[in-house]
Design a protein that fits this description.
By secondary structure, the chain is of the alpha/beta class. It has one domain (28-341): Aldolase class I (TIM Barrel, Alpha-Beta Barrel), CATH 3.20.20. The protein has helices at 60-72, 92-98, 116-126, 140-147, 152-165, 185-195, 222-230, 295-300, 306-316, 338-341; strands spanning 18-19, 25-26, 28-32, 77-81, 106-111, 130-134, 169-175, 198-202, 235-237, 247-251, 254-261, 274-277, 282-284, 292-294. Strands 9-10-11-8-7-6-5-4-3-12-13-14 form a 12-stranded mixed sheet. Strands 1-2 form a two-stranded antiparallel ribbon. α2 (92-98) links the parallel β4 (77-81) and β5. The two termini are 28 Å apart. The relative contact order is 0.17. Bound molecules: S-adenosylmethionine (SAM) and iron/sulfur cluster.
């Protein structure tokens, strides 16, 4: 495969920065490398998902080209996500070419963990410094119900492989749904403490129609989880940030940090510093709105210059919306599922 990377320039006083019309600096890009997945989590997908035809996906080289353009524009944090990023064929090409770019300070991955036994070492060697692993239940039967197909043991093996690979930090991500897994928050925290991991609890977002459950009925707020945990642990709020939307709490007797991603109860839009690239090359300016720019068209236009890609990214900042309008009581206004969005 030939390399098409726009070589990032060393930062100078003139290094361009991406700033939107509300004064928010965008320094974080989430890149979805595929919308496909080996699981079918009930909050993320419907049972019969249509996936994007492969011809419409950005190639691995195009993904690297866009990622590098963002780093050149001052973006210091990249997260590779999906769908399940590790099911994309030859995905290590992306990690190998983006890891180590000058100016990139934080190179991270969100994964369901099923392929980590195979990839953890290579990811670390490619420069991935932190990793988020999704885990909603420690009960095999329940895990299968929530993921529709998943085998818990495979993910637990993946977590061990990640621990052995020596990432700076590993965080578990748990989407908590009332009546499905809300009674497991203490077990999940105990597991995180035992394994030396952080954990973030996520409120479900109304992205795409999922059929499985009524999202208003299964809503379980971060505040409720905090209350559940405080019956057992002393938790102290911190101002720590990992550059994303999590609000963190520290525990007095363990290095494990507990995070909350609370789009409903604690809206985080005012400090939003991120944009997303879908697997089709659409630059989404907000998780909960449709404002977007087609970067694939620019990357594939043989008459357009490298400068045109940078200019399109800079211009896109003008349409970054103020925030999402999530409302669990209504049918989703965003028909994109999370696997298309790049979580
Ligand atoms: N497949 C990988 C995984 O599951 O970690 C990466 C992609 S997944 C879309 C990224 C994150 O989004 C996961 O932590 C998942 O639990 C979360 N997620 C998916 N659908 C969601 C929804 N509707 N609301 C909130 N979080 C969601
Ligand atoms: Fe796949 Fe991740 Fe969506 Fe679950 S949350 S279906 S693992 S993309």
């Amino acid at each position: 495969m030939s390399s098409v990377i726009e070589k990032p320039q060393p930062a100078t006083a003139q290094t361009p920065v991406l700033i939107d019309r509300f004064g928010r600096q965008v320094n974080y890009l989430r890149i979805s490398v595929t919308d496909r997945c080996d699981l079918r989590c009930v909050y993320c997908m419907s049972e019969d998902m249509q996936f994007v035809p492969r011809s419409r996906l950005l190639t691995l080289e195009e993904i690297v080209q866009v990622g590098a353009a963002f780093v050149n524009l001052g973006v210091s944090k990249l997260r590779i996500t999906g769908g399940e990023p590790l099911v994309r064929k030859n995905v290590m090409y992306v990690f190998d070419h983006l890891g180590g770019l000058p100016g990139l300070k934080d190179f991270t991955l969100t994964t369901n963990g099923t392929q980590l036994s195979r990839y953890a070492r290579d990811l670390r060697a490619a420069g991935v410094n932190r990793i988020n692993i999704s885990l909603d239940s420690l009960q095999p039967e329940r895990f299968k119900q929530i993921t529709r197909t998943g085998e818990l043991a495979k993910v637990l093996d993946g977590i061990e492989a990640a621990r052995d690979a020596g990432f700076d930090r590993i965080k578990l991500n748990s989407v908590v749904l009332k009546y499905k897994n809300h009674d497991e928050v203490l077990d999940l925290v105990a597991f995180a403490r035992q394994k030396g991991l952080d954990i973030s609890f996520i409120e479900e977002m109304p992205l795409g129609i999922v059929n499985d459950h009524d999202r208003a009925y299964t809503y379980y707020s971060s505040d409720q989880i905090l209350e559940d945990l405080r019956r057992h642990y002393t938790l102290t709020a911190t101002t720590e940030s990992t550059g994303g939307p999590s609000r963190y709490y520290r525990m007095s007797d363990s290095p494990t940090r507990i995070g909350f991603i609370s789009p409903h109860s604690h809206n985080f839009c005012s400090s939003c510093n991120r944009v997303r690239l879908t697997a089709e090359g659409r630059l989404l300016l907000c998780l909960g709105q449709e404002h977007s720019v087609d970067l694939r068209r620019i990357v594939r236009d043989t008459t357009s210059s490298r400068e045109a890609l940078s200019q399109a990214i800079i211009a896109a900042m003008a349409i970054k919306p103020k925030g999402h309008d999530f409302n669990l009581a209504e049918q989703p206004v965003i028909f994109r599922h999370m696997n298309h969005t790049g979580g």
